[in-house]
């Protein structure tokens, strides 16, 4: 079981000295490499790391200490700002203007043989930036991260581990045949899964091996959007993608179509867990909803072993920002009745229903602020922008253990822990009262965007 180290080790008691500074900045010039790692003298060693909350809002980003809500730093940015995990558990990929720039949240976990040392430093917007006209999906998988530019179809693969050294190490640069709202997923064998399409139509997903040779393809995925990695098989990665006629699953080197009832079913926002064979997805069945917006109450649990689907009706509508996975694969959905629904992904059984916000309605524009969440360190961080509050929910128990007031009205959230998986695991044979919690080795997952 993955455990929330911040609670086990008394996050509220940690003295995170040297973290109160504010850093203002703007997007630096785009470069393949550059920047400097913070000098060791700027770091403070601590007994454990407290997760840091990064909020995108009008005017930039702000980072908070999850222990007490203190503002640790901020950066000024123009335009609409989006946030994605960079893949190392420390940096956040900030999409703004025509670039994707790395934001250092200042959490460091360094392994020393059989134990770890933990350090903190001021958050800062770095000058590590990739040009990306109409920046799109950022997908960490394995030990690589793919950045996709919708405006050009350019795909940039980076090594997230190099970010800690102040370097943006570009491993590969390629591009799709035409610009489109697409996605790329680095595969653990060195290959690449990517979409093909145009601004008007996209229905093709391809897999290339490490030498760039086409090894698998499907053209039966209209409106392809959203991706999730599930538990791999002996032969390699398992990736699910949303389509408008049922999802497709890449498994054992081939694409498999998920059957549906009727002609239309869209699961364009998917969330996986690499220890689970189940993918959580939205479930839309109206090709032409009456007012242009379908407000589904049902979710889909896709079984990547046999391409089957379990449908669960939550009894209340949800929005694309409200799906995520817990530390043990739990399916999390925030519904418009203000409840956080925590489900067993294998059975669809409701484990907890946690009231976390007032009732709300989906905004007219997806860019507008509305309730949202991120999951890290065994906790669901749930934002109510109207009340300007954030509730921390222990996923295992369904209990709210901390509430914070927010200094800004956010429209996106990411939470970092200092390790790539976002979760801490008590090492076998260790006494949690006498030893630090050790990071687990699991991979992160990517939040889909319904736009």
From TrEMBL:
Source domain of life: Bacteria
Signal peptide residue numbers: 1-20
Ranges where the record places region Disordered: 24-44, 429-451
Keywords linked to the UniProt accession: Signal
InterPro entries assigned: Quino_amine_DH_bsu, WD40/YVTN_repeat-like_dom_sf
Entries under SUPFAM superfamilies matching the protein: YVTN repeat-like/Quinoprotein amine dehydrogenase (SSF50969)
The protein's name: Secreted protein
Organism, as annotated: Brachybacterium avium
């Amino acid at each position: 079981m993955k455990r929330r180290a911040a609670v086990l080790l008394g996050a509220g008691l940690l003295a995170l000295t040297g973290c109160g500074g504010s850093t203002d900045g703007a997007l630096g010039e785009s470069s393949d490499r550059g920047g400097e790692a913070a000098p060791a003298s700027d770091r403070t060693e601590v007994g454990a790391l407290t997760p840091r909350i990064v909020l995108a809002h009008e005017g930039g980003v702000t980072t908070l200490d999850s222990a007490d809500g203190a503002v640790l730093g901020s950066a000024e940015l123009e335009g609409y700002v989006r946030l994605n995990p960079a893949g190392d558990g420390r940096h956040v990929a900030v999409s703004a203007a025509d670039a994707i720039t790395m934001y250092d949240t200042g959490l460091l976990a360094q392994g020393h043989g059989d134990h770890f040392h933990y350090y903190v430093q001021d958050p800062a917007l770095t000058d590590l930036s990739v040009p990306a006209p109409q920046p799109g999906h950022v997908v960490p998988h394995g030990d690589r991260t793919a950045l996709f530019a919708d405006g050009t179809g350019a795909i940039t693969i980076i090594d997230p581990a190099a970010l800690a050294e102040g370097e943006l190490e570009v491993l590969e640069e390629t591009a799709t045949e035409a610009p489109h709202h697409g996605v790329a997923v680095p595969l653990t064998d060195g290959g690449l899964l990517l979409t093909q399409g145009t601004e008007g139509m996209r229905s093709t997903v391809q897999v290339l091996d490490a030498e760039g040779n086409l090894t698998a393809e499907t053209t039966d995925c209209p409106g392809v959007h959203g991706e999730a990695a599930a538990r791999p098989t002996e032969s390699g990665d398992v990736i699910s993608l949303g389509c408008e006629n049922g999802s497709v699953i890449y498994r054992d080197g081939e694409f498999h179509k998920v059957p549906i009832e009727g002609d239309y079913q869209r699961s364009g926002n998917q969330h996986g867990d690499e220890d689970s064979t189940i993918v959580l997805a939205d479930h839309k069945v109206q090709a032409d909803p009456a007012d242009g917006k379908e407000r589904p109450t049902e979710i889909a649990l896709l079984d990547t072993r046999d391409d089957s689907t379990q449908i669960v009706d939550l009894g209340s509508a949800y929005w694309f920002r409200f799906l995520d996975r817990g530390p043990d694969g739990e399916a999390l959905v925030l519904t418009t009745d203000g409840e956080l629904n925590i489900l067993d992904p294998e059975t669809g059984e409701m484990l907890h229903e946690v009231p976390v916000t007032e009732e709300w309605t989906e905004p007219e524009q997806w860019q507008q602020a509305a309730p949202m969440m991120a999951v890290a360190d065994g906790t669901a961080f749930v934002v109510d922008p109207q009340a300007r509050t954030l509730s921390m929910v222990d996923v295992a128990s369904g209990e709210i253990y901390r509430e914070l007031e927010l200094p800004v009205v956010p429209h996106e959230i990411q939470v970092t822990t200092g390790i790539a998986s976002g979760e801490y695991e008590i090492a076998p044979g260790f006494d949690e009262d006498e030893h630090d919690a050790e990071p687990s080795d699991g991979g992160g997952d990517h939040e889909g965007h319904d736009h």
